[in-house]
Automatic annotation (TrEMBL):
This is DNA topoisomerase (ATP-hydrolyzing). Its cofactor is Mg(2+). GO terms for cellular component: nuclear chromosome. It comes from Neolecta irregularis (strain DAH-3). The active site is at residue 25. Signal peptide: none annotated. CDD domains: TOPRIM_TopoIIB_SPO (cd00223).
Length: 289
């Protein structure tokens, strides 16, 4: 603990920013594990009731972004995400001056393989459902970036986008639902930061258990739940936020009853139009609601 406090103090005095990974490598023999540093930094931030950024400690850049977004950085650099066909690595929020949105919606995708597939299909400029910003979790991008995105002004002329809706595509399994809940309702481990990080407007767009109803050999695409899956599902069901996510709660109960889960890739195989066709249908449904 004292060593981490010392490193944080040095960074504050010198006004230098570090990632948790940077702190770990400054004394790897002492810390032995990255998780030790992660927990200590979070505990220190919680103790002082401040965000990690106030300690000049940031999470490492995670996740990719593509589509109708231009990132203006404080150093004067400008990144047009549409110029990166395979996605741009999400920068640290501390380095961002403003975000310029030219999209009708944002789609957050759990799996990088699905993200790359959509980029290859140029889904972010689909002629039927408009321009999009695609973001992948690797495994979890900084929530600060999504919060900044949600609060940024859109240049889209679509009447649909008085504010830019943010959709989330995750596996139909306890881990995917936990990721969704972290973005929308916050993280228990960073409870003191949740007020500035949650995305109450985040909308679950799939994958749903009902998507497999009527599919030939109904259990095709499903996999058995592991013991850990069951434990996580049971834990999630104890959260009060699920009362507002009725379909997700129903799917969790169904998982535990049938002992099966489904991934995004399985939906691609079950849907005639693949992942693109699936998402086009789901986004249209959201617009009609």
């Amino acid at each position: 603990m004292l060593r981490v406090l010392q490193l944080i103090h040095e960074g504050l005095v010198k006004n230098e920013k570090s990632t948790k990974r940077d702190l770990y490598y400054k004394d790897a023999k002492l810390f032995r594990s990255q998780s030790v540093v992660d927990e200590l930094v979070d505990d220190i931030a919680f103790t002082f009731s401040v965000a990690r950024s106030a300690l000049n400690v940031t999470a490492a850049s995670k996740g990719l972004v593509a589509g109708g977004l231009t990132i203006h950085k404080k150093n004067g650099a400008i990144d047009d995400c549409s110029d990166f066909p395979e996605g741009l690595l999400i920068p640290n929020v501390a380095d961002i001056k403003t975000l310029e949105i030219n999209a009708d919606y944002v789609l957050v995708i759990e799996k990088e393989a699905s993200f790359q597939s959509l980029c290859l299909e140029r889904f972010h400029s689909h002629p039927e459902i408009g321009n999009a910003i695609l973001i992948t979790l690797r495994p979890i991008p900084t929530r600060e970036f999504l919060r900044l995105l949600a609060n940024s002004t859109t240049l889209s002329q679509s009447a649909y986008t008085r504010s830019t809706p943010i959709f989330c595509l995750v596996d139909n399994d306890p881990h995917g639902f936990e990721i969704f809940s972290t973005y929308k309702f916050g993280s228990k481990s960073l409870a003191h930061e949740n007020r500035n990080l949650t995305l109450p407007s985040l909308q679950w767009i799939g994958v749903f258990a009902k998507d497999f109803d009527g599919v030939k050999n109904g259990l095709d695409g499903y996999m058995p739940l592991t013991i850990r899956d069951r434990q996580k599902a049971t834990s999630l069901l104890q959260n009060s936020w699920l009362d507002g996510e009725i379909e997700m709660k129903s799917d969790l109960c169904r998982m535990l009853f049938v002992g099966m889960k489904a991934e995004i890739q399985a939906m691609c195989e079950a849907n005639k139009g693949g992942l693109v066709g699936y998402l086009v249908d789901k986004i249209r449904e959201k617009r009609e609601m």
